TrEMBL record:
<feature type="transmembrane region" description="Helical">
    <location>
        <begin position="147"/>
        <end position="172"/>
    </location>
</feature>
<feature type="transmembrane region" description="Helical">
    <location>
        <begin position="101"/>
        <end position="127"/>
    </location>
</feature>
<feature type="transmembrane region" description="Helical">
    <location>
        <begin position="179"/>
        <end position="200"/>
    </location>
</feature>
<keyword id="KW-0472">Membrane</keyword>
<keyword id="KW-1133">Transmembrane helix</keyword>
<feature type="transmembrane region" description="Helical">
    <location>
        <begin position="21"/>
        <end position="39"/>
    </location>
</feature>
<keyword id="KW-0812">Transmembrane</keyword>
<feature type="transmembrane region" description="Helical">
    <location>
        <begin position="228"/>
        <end position="249"/>
    </location>
</feature>
<protein>
    <submittedName>
        <fullName>ABC-2 family transporter</fullName>
    </submittedName>
</protein>
<feature type="transmembrane region" description="Helical">
    <location>
        <begin position="59"/>
        <end position="80"/>
    </location>
</feature>
<dbReference type="Pfam" id="PF12730">
    <property type="entry name" value="ABC2_membrane_4"/>
</dbReference>
Amino acid sequence: MNALRAEWIKFYSLRSTWLTLAGLVVAGLGITFLSMSAIADSYPDLTAEERLEWDPTRLSLTLFFVVQLIIGVLGVLVVTSEYATGLLRTSLTATPRRHRLLLAKVAVVAAVAVVAGQVLMFAAFFLGQNRLSAAGAPHAALGDPHVLRAIVGTGLYLAVIALLAVALGTILRATAGALAALVAIVLLVPALADIFPGWLDGLFDFWPTIGGSAVVATLPDPAYPHPWVNLAGLAAGVAVLLAGAVVLFGRRDV
């Protein structure tokens, strides 16, 4: 409990924490406002087939594609900032059991990311639907089928990405390296997915921004009929990576 309290104090006392969270909200809602205004204006020009695929909930939550990198920065800095400043030696002196120190960081990041992700996704949903309604385009309500699942699931997806960032920061021990790895995982690999061998297709069912983010949609997707399973698979993969990070953190000199 003392380790958890100490990590929470370190977390909220850093200016970078609040700047990152502010950037998360400003960027997320700004993207939603601008993109949904443009999408709403384009609705009259859609074909009949395109209107059948109209998913107002998914459209208002696509900000996750950008803000996952911002919340990833938060997860990385929780670990690597202490390596950069040398504060980690002090933290290890106060908490000699290394696994407790790292698990306390994981708990703090998870709690903050869950709350921030849910607040942002609900805000983005209501803002997006408001823009659609104002333009006379079809919009969704919170009580519509699968809408609440999509909002909550996308918020949880962001929390999982934050924990992925903590694991990468612990393993690589450098902010630039961890962020580069995060960008490669969530952006580069999905962009190049078509060039990978077919036997890797099953892996992509649980990959961030591919199968792992399927929960954002409310319309049935034959490729991902069980989006919670895809999200759970992503979470399981991140849990394994975190377990490896805990082992490495305990065996290293610093």
